[in-house]
Amino acid sequence: xxxxxxxxxxxxxxxxxxxxxxxxxxxxxxxxxxxxxxxxxxxxxxxxxxxxxxxxxxxxxxxxxxxxxxxxxxxxxxxxxxxxxxxxxxxxxxxxxxxxxxxxxxxxxxxxxxxxxxxxxxxxxxxxxxxxxxxxxxxxxxxxxxxxxxxxxxxxxxxxxxxxxxxxxxxxxxxxxxxxxxxxxxxxxxxxxxxxxxxxxxxxxxxxxxxxxxxxxxxxxxxxxxxxxxxxxxxxxxxxxxxxxxxxxxxxxxxxxxxxxxxxxxxxxxxxxxxxxxxxxxxxxxxxxxxxxxxxxxxxxxxxxxxxxxxxxxxxxxxxxxxxxxxxxxxxxxxxxxxxxxxxxxxxxxxxxxxxxxxxxxxxxxxxxxxxxxxxxxxxxxxxxxxxxxxxxxxxxxxxxxxxxxxxxxxxxxxxxxxxxxxxxx
Length: 426
Description:
Layout: H1 2-27, E1 49-53, E2 56-57, E3 62-65, E4 73-78, E5 86-96, E6 103-110, E7 126-133, E8 140-147, E9 164-167, E10 177-184, E11 187-192, E12 195-200, E13 210-217, E14 223-234, H2 254-257, H3 270-279, H4 281-420
Antiparallel strand pairs: 1-4, 2-3, 3-14, 4-13, 5-10, 5-14, 6-7, 6-13, 7-8, 8-9, 10-11, 11-12
């Protein structure tokens, strides 16, 4: 009986998954295609991810390449393919190194996941590669497509083969860099730190490809740290993944591994239920439903709190009405008192001005009388001064003439004596 109830409960969850899958996918990151928090509990493995090359796993980050060691290549890949036709992936990373750049990072959406010479991943890939490097000395982000026939490593100018690119300062910034891919039917948008880098409507990417991040360091090694990788999707309900496969050079394309969901309808049976439970998607759905229920409960509590605030708002409205009436009465009284005060102030100012005018007239009268008396007495005063000082002036003139006459007589006497003198010589 209990097994039957469990069976029917799982079937109901599958039905709910088919109905709510796109909505939940938009709001919640897909745990099978994202790096959780913490990234790793044992500092060795990453749930739902494969690691290749020189990868060091920490609790809160993944080192694809480490500082100080050149010639490193590291990559991490999702074990499950991406079932969505419309999806968003956001990566946050940090790059640091010496004065000169020495390495690059790539975000992949491909049919294969292998090590190789292109930033730690394979050449001749089938899918999309978003490259971040400092080719030519300038940091930039580039988009490259390959159908499995282009040998990227042998291209003379790989940068010129990009279908779009934009500049980016990503090394030694001291902060993390965010790169966001938004993919839809015939739509690709790349955003860096919240700004649009490039977009195009001429690219159609298939679903059921792998997502990955890889990096490589050169002679001047750069260190690349990955902090988060979140993928959300819609338009396609989550599908059951195929059993995990070993990574190898002869691994077939994802399009050969799994048929298109729209071509072959999914049949629910006992095996499907077991695979669903083991894949972990039922757990993800349960968490998403619990989160939705919590949000609904929170909204309900907020609505109830708003209803409880209604009586309080009514009382506040009544108090505001009374306050408004009191303010109006006070304002009327204030205007009356102000008017009376203004009238008395005007009368006081007028009386003060009258008193000041009278004082100024009196001062002006006094000044005029003193001025007229002073001007009238000046000529008499000057005449008396000349009259009293007259004799003393003539006496001085007489003395001066006498002195000059004495000097003239003495000079004449001196010249006469000089003429009568005869010097004697032996």
